[in-house]
Hints:
Layout: H1 2-21, E1 25-27, E2 30-38, E3 47-55, E4 61-67, E5 71-82, E6 85-90, E7 95-97, E8 102-105, E9 111-117, E10 126-133, E11 137-146
Parallel strand pairs: 2-11
Antiparallel strand pairs: 1-2, 2-3, 3-8, 3-9, 4-7, 4-10, 5-6, 5-9, 10-11
The structure holds copper (II) ion.
Amino acid sequence: MRMFAAGFALLVALVAAQPLAAHDITKGDLVISAPWSRATPAGAEVAAGYLVITNKGLSADRLVSLSTEISGQPEVHEMSNEGGVMKMRALKDGLAIPAGATVKLQPAGYHLMLMKLKKPLVAGQHYKATLIFEKAGPVEVDFEVRAMGAGQQKGHTGHNH
Ligand SMILES: [Cu+2]
């Protein structure tokens, strides 16, 4: 019975780890996982990028900026509630990634904002962006573009390949 329980726990751990492992990138103390964007309608001038950043180190880091060839002006944004209205704005000093913390960039929260989009994002395609961290330095990340309705389910990290 004890062996069965241990085996089952291991199985659960393996299954749970799999969806994230395919996209995990480790750089210094940071682990970056599940980078994705929503597809954009034709003619769209902006897109958003989402991902999860975990800092396994003992000191804080900071997502300072990013670059990608698909955007003429990529920014790091936050959403804030101003008098009951959700607004977003650029984080001029970047996004803090505290020691030991996991920071999620997700719909209705922190996000990468790809201004001056140079081409529409098509579901199933990928694009690359380089995230610049204060301490960990530049990290190239491959973003998966998902269908326009994607991301409504909380905690959804699955993909089809
Ligand atoms: Cu934004």
